[in-house]
Write a structure and sequence with these properties.
Number of domains: 1
CATH architecture: 3-Layer(aba) Sandwich
CATH class: Alpha Beta
Structural class: alpha/beta
Number of strands: 9
Strand order of the largest sheet: 1-2-3-5-4-6-7-8-9
Distance between the termini: 38 Å
Number of helices: 11
Oligomer: single chain
Low-confidence stretches: none
Strand content: 15-25%
Shape: globular
Mean pLDDT: 91
Largest sheet: 9 strands, mixed
CATH superfamily: Alpha/Beta hydrolase fold, catalytic domain
Order of helices and strands: HHEEEEHEHEHEHHHEHEHH
């Protein structure tokens, strides 16, 4: 336990070497569950997705997918969604796995190190690496780090960015449903797990999800865990209380709705000693969703690296068991 916590603390120290140099706070408009219909709020519109395949490796065609966000932010590079794609040459009926990365990740590399080679060598599934708003090439030039503008003390922009992420993810899901025959599975890590959970409460075209080291209530994470401490400070300096933030971000809480995915096709994975994610918060989602399949590892958030073999085995076995039914 002590070693897991120490590793997480060290990683957090390194994480916070890059922090916002200015306040992102803006006086928020009140957005609450009571005044907005969730289905309408997160609705996606059909958008043309282009696939550009430029190379081959083993039995795969490799390239990128791209489309314009149907919920533009007004920031040009953020509104172009472009991710990596790996299609089996016999792609027609292969499962389609969409990977959703974590907050402040700077590339897909950490996700690929967990899953990519195993899928290529053992399963042959199609893979899509989906970029969240304000991350990677969607990061504005004046942003200090990947994801700075997605989650911040700008309360409404955080809502808008999350909404855009869900709408963009649903665009890709629905395009796959129309253009590919295989089932669709989402695999989210950290912030990507939270996004994946939220998508599961909205999207009927998902066949299953695996959510790894996920948060549930964003307001809880910002207020009660170390990664959010500078955002919390920015909010408190501008008179925002935890109760205020809970109300503003209620629409972002996956545990407020039941998943549209079959409960038995949901796998939740948490770290018992996670210093990034409060296990009590993760427990709340698990209980609210009727206790779907779950693993709790004896590790911290650094298990993304230190436990990647176990994560890959549990995740891929879970999907494989459902694909072969």
């Amino acid at each position: 336990m002590l070693i897991s916590k120490f590793i997480d603390r060290y990683a957090l120290y390194d994480l916070h070497k890059k922090k916002s140099k200015i306040s992102h706070y803006l006086t928020p408009q009140d957005i609450t569950q009571e005044t907005i219909d969730r289905e309408t709020f997160y609705k996606s519109n059909p958008v043309n997705v282009t696939i550009d395949l430029s190379s081959t490796e083993k039995d795969y065609k490799i390239g990128s997918f791209a489309f314009n966000s149907s919920l533009p932010s007004g920031i040009t590079n953020n509104d172009m969604v472009k991710g990596d794609v790996f299609l089996n040459e016999d792609e027609e009926n292969k499962p389609n796995i969409i990977f959703v990365h974590g907050w402040r990740m700077e590339s897909f590399d950490r996700i690929k190190k967990i899953f990519h080679d195993r899928i290529m060598n053992e399963f042959g599934w199609n893979m899509y690496y989906f970029p969240l708003p304000f991350h990677f090439q969607r990061q504005p030039e004046d942003s200090l780090y990947s994801g700075e503008l997605m989650i911040s003390a700008n309360i409404n922009r955080t809502v808008d960015s999350t909404r855009q992420g869900i709408v963009d993810l649903r665009t890709l899901i629905n395009w796959l449903k129309i253009n590919k025959k295989g089932p669709i599975y989402l695999v989210g890590v950290s912030l990507g797990g939270w996004i994946t959970n939220l998508a599961a409460t909205l999207e009927e075209e998902i066949d299953g999800i695996v959510s790894i080291f996920y948060a549930n209530k964003l307001s809880h994470s910002i207020w009660n865990t170390i990664p959010g401490k500078f955002i919390k400070k920015d909010l408190e300096q501008n008179g925002v209380t935890y109760e205020d933030l809970e109300r503003y971000w209620d629409i972002l809480d996956p545990s407020q709705a039941k998943p549209k995915v079959n409960k038995n096709n949901i796998l939740l994975i948490s770290g018992r000693f996670d210093q990034y994610i409060d296990l009590n918060d993760a427990n709340h989602l698990w209980e609210a969703w009727g206790k779907p399949p779950r693993h709790i590892y004896n590790c911290g958030h650094a298990g993304i690296v230190l436990q990647r073999t176990k994560i890959a085995t549990d995740t891929l076995s879970f999907i494989h068991e459902r694909v072969k039914r």
